[in-house]
Amino acid sequence: MRLARGRVGPNLNWQLIVPIISGTLLAVGLGMLVCAAQALVGGDGATMAFAGPAAVVIPLAAVGVASARRLPSMPLRARDGFLAVTLAWLAAAVVGGVPFLLHGTFERPLDALFESMSGFTTTGATLIRVIEGEPDAILLWRSLSQWIGGVGIVVLVVAIAPATGLATQRVFYAETSGVTAERLTPRIAETAKIIWGLYLVVTTTAVLAFLLVGMGLFDAVNHGFTTVATGGFSTRTASLAAFNSIGVEIVALVFMVISGVNFAFYWRALRGNGIWPQAAEVRAYVLILLGGTAVVTASLVVSEEPGSFAQTLHDAGFTVTSIITSGGFITTDFDQWNDFARGFLLLLMFVGGCAGSTAGGLKVIRVLLLAKSAGQEVQRQLRPKAVQVLRTRGRIYTEELRRGVLGFFAIYMTVTAVGTMAMLATGLDMISAFSSVAATLNVVGLGLGEIGATDNFEAISGPGRAILTVTMLAGRLEVFTVLVLLTPAFWRPNVA
Amino acid sequence: MHHTAPVRVIIIGLGEVGRHVARTLSAEHHDVTIIDADPKRVEAAQGELDALVMTGNGASPKVLRELGAGKADLLCAVTQSDEVNVIAALAANQLGAGQTVARVRDSEYFGDDDAFARDAMGIDFVVNPERATADDLAESILVPGAVHVEHFVDGVVSVAEVILTNRSPLLGKSIGERRIVRPSFVFGLIRDGRAVAAEPGHRPKVGDHLLVASAREDIAPVVAHLAGYAQRVRDLVIFGGGRVGLPLAKRLEREKGLHVTLMERDGDRAREVAEQLTRTTVLHEEGVSKEVLLAHGVDRAGAFVACAGDDRANLLAALHARQLGAGLSLAVVSREEFTPLVDALGIDAAFSPRLVTAEAILRAVRGPNVHGMYLLSGGAEVVEVQTAMGCRGAGQTVEDANANAATHIAAIVRGGRVIVPRGSERLAGGDRLVVFNTRSGAAGLRKVFSAAA
After folding, report:
1. Closest approach of chain B CAs to the CA of A399, in angstroms?
2. Mean pLDDT in chain A?
3. B270 contacts on A by Cβ (under 8 Å)
4. DSSP A410-470
5. B253 — contact with chain A (CB < 8 Å)?
6. Are B340 and B419 in the same domain?
7. Rounded Cα gap, residues B260 and B249, in angstroms
8. Which among A443, B133, B229, B302 could disulfide-bond with B233, CB atoms 3.0 to 4.6 Å apart, if both were Cys?
């Protein structure tokens, strides 16, 4: 057709992008409705802050979702997938920030966006100084946003609205990258349902466990949401330390460890077949948790940290788990620890949990493959003709995947470096700047220095908050999805 | 004189294996019908074989019925196509053929699971020539000093072929004078490609191959003593990651203290092979020049195996390896016309997938009293026979039995124990014998060791 000539901009498939964004917003709207109900029951005056936006978003989103059914099933290209997912997350964060503004938690829209983005991306960085000062509905909204973002908003959309058919694959893969995405069933929507089903089961169990160790119902539900999502938002300013209960800390520890593993692994284990492809990663994950705890404990013992050995071991174990799984809860002010321990924790932030879990970071499997690739590269100097196969037990990785992992690492490091320089430019000191990027890109939410364990992110300036909002989103979507949108090629027409 | 009734054999496929089996069986006066889809091959074979040679699709039930597959005692499907072979064997089995043998090269079909082929599909033997060759190669690498090792009588007796080097303590002595470390019997000698029975007075020379039998647990020290060195192979270089190279590497990379390096010329195949091997160093190497082999440490390797797809390349590579100083230089040589080159080039031993296949197929036709067999390049063979109760051989001394059957008894197994066959030893019914035949043919054996009809 002649019409196509002379067009500028990419030939995007809005007919499928719109329903996906709508589906996401529908989920956000329904979440707000829950919070509105909570506010109504609690009588804390935040009802309209939630009911208002929900009343606008839900009908609009419903129309958008419904529009999908009437359209012919067109193929969604990779580009549409990237854009759909990024826009879906952005939309969720923007809409999710509105209640904070309406209620008056924040005055600046950027702060509301930061808090909301920190929620959906399960980072757990907050700008609220006194959390206990906020109404329950706001606290529930923070927890709920983390829970919705936990295993992925788009996975949720695919699970509940599979109408988009073939197109959903692209979206699914854009949200979870190369080494992560996998099918458990022939139909992607079934896979999404299984993952969300397991997520629901684990969350319910976590809530019950918190109740069992003596938490109140409201605290248990909130912490259940944020623990399984490995988000880190708490209902208390002092985080889990406020409960001063070893039982609570152990429940949080156990569920953080559980959630740092891909839920698909549990499905396979339950079905009793084919867990080997993931077993290598899970094994490495457990070893890193144990090894990390041992190293930090040893360092604390050597530097004669006060407290009994059992206390030190517990603090080290909890902090290491919280950092690796990007859980972001704290029981002790680790910013007071010696520099070795602090540096080591920074390193662990980049490792993260297992691919496809709610955790952030590079992901254990990538770290494993990077280490193997590095070893093979050394070997290759000795035997240039040797054919090297990247493998873990039960799985062989193609050379394309190897390239993908190496490229991912390069980009991850570049983003870290550029982000750190940008944060330094906003006037932060070296440690705070680097750790703020590490904390947000790896969606941990805990930093060092001015944004240390017991501090919030108020020390960050306005432009800094904007930068970190972007790194949070980039970290959650594993960089590539967001980064391709910034390339000129993406916006050129007729690029498949 | 009684002769066992001729066996009716149908062979499908006129490849090298088909021709070899047909030739061997028709020489033993069996009724052989051989069928191939290619008229040119059929025409070429008609003058060459004493058998009924026909054109047709051997996998077609109609053709099989016309050939009388229902009355055949044995059907061997040995075409180039695995699928055709399997279908032919299945069809023949349905029509009521006695035994069915199928050559299946792709291990995807049955792998190591022969039981499935036999029980679920009714194929009596699945022969994988390359895998069997790889097994043979592995044996000769694991028993240092021997170029072939074969096990008989349920694995109780081992027969090894040993090449004499100038290290051997046997040089300058006669076979009768050798110091015996473990109960063992040197029964045969191959010189210049010709196999003869070993006499106590023989004085072996460098380059001779000795055939020795002993109990299985003794074979490694016996061979080490004859060959004059007991060095285990620690480094193995395999040239060619094909259907022989891959199973060989798979089998040997599991051995402790043995490092396997595999060279493959094709890049894609090299990767495919590397993906299936975990401890082997796989190299993508296009050349087989001396420099290349030297670069990969062939000079220090305990053993070198050339098993690429091409006989010439194999011979050349094995020759290079020999000259560079590899401990043991082995080659897979498929075509018979190259076999004489093996000795001339000083290559330690050649392995032929064709011979291995023929061996397996012929085992099926030898009948219940003849078990294992082992074909040597010169046409001689080592077979396993059971002395039937009341046969002519029972009660005779080893010396007499040897004279009557024109064979040489290499080992006797009685009640699970291995007995060295001295001339005066008397045979009993039920003994299981390992017998050396300098020329192929089982007629003499049947005459002496089968129960009188």
Report:
1. 10
2. 83
3. 387
4. HHHHHHHHHHHHHHHHTT--HHHHHHHHHHHHTT----SGGG-TT--GGGS-HHHHHHHHH
5. no
6. no
7. 7
8. B302
Spatial distance between the Cα atoms of A119 and B302, rounded to a whole number of angstroms: 64
Contact B282 A383 (CB under 8 A): no
- Report how many Cβ contacts below 8 Å link chain A to chain B: 26
The partner residue sitting opposite B283, judged by closest CB among A387, A389, A396, is A387
Q: How far apart are the C-alpha atoms of B178 and B172, rounded to whole Å?
A: 10
C-beta atoms of A387 and B271 within 8 A: yes
On whether both B347 and B285 belong to a single domain, the answer is yes
DSSP three-state, residue B49: coil
Q: Is the pLDDT of residue A218 over 50?
A: yes
The two three-digit tokens of residue B240, written as one number: 């060619």
Structural domain including B100 reads 8-127
CA distances in angstroms from A283 to A290, B137, B291, listed in the order given: 11, 38, 44
Between chains, do A385 and B284 touch, taking CB under 8 Å as contact? yes
- Structural domain includes residue B152: no
d(C-alpha A46, C-alpha A27), whole Å: 20
Query: B380 and B313 share a domain?
Result: no
Q: Tokens at residue A306, please?
A: 């006060």
Both tokens of residue A308?
Answer: 């009994």
Tell me if A386 and B275 make a contact (CB, 8 A cut-off). no
Instruction: Express each pLDDT in B234-276 by its tens digit.
Output: 899 999 998 899 999 998 998 888 899 999 999 999 999 999 8
Asked if B282 reaches chain A (Cβ–Cβ under 8 Å), the answer is: yes
Note whether B283 contacts A388, CB cutoff 8 Å. Answer: no
| Local confidence band at A73 (pLDDT 50, 70, 90 cut-offs) | low
Residue B246 makes CB contacts below 8 A (sequence gap 6+) with: B134, B273, B276, B277
Partners of residue A386 in chain B, C-beta under 8 Å: 281-284
The pLDDT assigned to A495 comes to 52
Q: Is B270 on the interface with A (CB under 8 A)?
A: yes
B262 interfacial to chain A (CB closer than 8 Å):
no
Residue range A108-119, pLDDT digits in tens: 999 999 999 999
**Which residues, in sequence order, are bridge partners of residue B101?**
B76, B125
Tell me which chain A residues have a C-beta less than 8 angstroms from the C-beta of B283: 383, 385-387
Name the residue among B274, B278, B296 with its Cβ closest to that of A387. B274
Give B-chain residues touching A387 at CB under 8 angstroms. Answer: 264, 270-271, 273-274, 282-284
Q: How much is the pTM? A: 0.78
How many domains does one find in chain B?
3
With CA atoms as reference, report the closest residue to B57 among B13, B10, B101, B121: B13
ipTM for the whole complex:
0.70
- Both tokens of residue A222? 């909130």
Letter for the amino acid at B314? N
CA pseudo-torsion sign B130, B132, B138, B139:
negative
Distance from CA of B287 to the nearest CA of A (A): 12
Closest alpha carbon within chain B to A390: B275
H/E stretch holding A395 reads strand A395-397
Three-state SS at A354: coil
Q: Compare CB distances from A396 to B264, B275, B283 and report the shortest one's residue.
A: B275
> Which residue, B297, B323, B355, sits at the end of a domain?
B355
CATH number at residue B321: 3.40.50.720
Residue partners of A198: CB distance under 8 A and separation at least 6: A263, A266, A267
Q: Which two tokens stand for residue A84?
A: 């759909």
Distance CA B20, CA B25 (A): 9
pLDDT for A471 equals 92
Q: How would you label A128-166 residue by residue, b for 16+ Cβ within 10 Å and e otherwise?
A: beebeebbbbbbbbbbbbbbbbbbbbbbbbbbbbbbbbe
CATH (domain of B441) = 3.30.70.1450
Q: Helices then strands (H, E): number in chain B?
A: 16, 22
